[in-house]
Design brief:
By secondary structure, the protein is an alpha+beta fold. About 30% of the residues lie in helices and about 30% in strands.
Length: about 180
C-alpha cells in the first residue's frame, strides 16, 4: 500500500470519506501547473492535491492533519468525527501499520544526500513507521543510529520500496 491507499483505507474504515470528499469539492483547491512555459493556477483532482501535500518526506503520523488542514481551515470547520478520527489515526498508525519489505534483522544500505554518509550492511533493530524512522546498528561505527526511511537504498541486496500493510482487528489489508 502507498501512503494514499493507507490514508483512504483509514477514512473508509472510519466512515470519514463523505466528510473528506465534501470538504474537498467545497474548497476546490488549486495548484500551480505549467502550460506552455507559463505557470497558471488551476483546479486539481484529489490525486494531485494529495501529492502536493505529501511531497517532501512527510511522516505518516502527520499525514491526516496535513491533508485536512487546508480543507477544514486548520480544524476550525471540522466536526466531532474529524476530531475523534485524528486521535484514532495516531493510534492506528502506531499500532497497526507495518512495512512489507522491512523487518528487524534485515541488512540495509543507506545513504544521506545532506551529509554524504553512506553505510553498508547495517542491521535493522527497531522500526517506527509513525515517524518514518528506523533504528539500525552500524558495525563500521560500532553504534546504533536512527535514520529516515527515505535514506534506505537496499534491503538484503534488493532496492527498497516503501510498501505498507495493515493488521487491524485480526485482519490483514494490503498483502496479496
Amino acid at each position: 500500500m502507498t501512503d494514499k491507499e493507507l490514508f483512504i483505507k483509514f477514512c473508509k474504515m472510519n466512515k470519514l470519506m463523505p466528510f473528506l470528499m465534501t470538504k474537498f469539492y467545497k474548497k476546490e483547491p488549486q495548484l500551480f501547473k505549467k502550460y506552455n512555459g507559463v505557470y497558471t493556477q488551476c483546479k486539481c483532482n484529489f490525486d494531485e492535491y494529495f501529492k502536493s501535500k505529501t511531497r517532501g518526506g512527510l511522516k505518516i503520523i502527520d499525514l491526516y492533519y496535513c491533508i485536512f488542514n487546508e480543507l477544514t481551515r486548520w480544524g476550525t470547520e471540522a466536526n466531532d468525527d474529524y476530531r475523534k478520527c485524528l486521535r484514532k489515526w495516531r493510534y492506528f498508525v502506531k499500532n497497526n501499520v507495518k512495512y512489507k519489505t522491512l523487518k528487524p534483522g534485515d541488512k540495509i544500505t543507506y545513504g544521506c544526500v545532506l551529509d554524504g554518509v553512506t553505510q553498508e550492511d547495517c542491521t535493522v533493530k527497531e522500526i517506527y513507521p509513525e515517524y518514518g524512522t528506523v533504528s539500525v546498528f552500524c558495525p563500521s561505527e560500532n553504534r546504533n543510529r536512527t535514520i529516515y526511511i527515505g535514506w534506505i537504498r537496499n534491503v538484503n541486496g534488493k532496492p527498497f520500496v516503501v510498501d505498507y500493510y495493515i493488521k487491524y482487528k485480526n485482519k490483514t489489508y494490503g498483502i496479496n
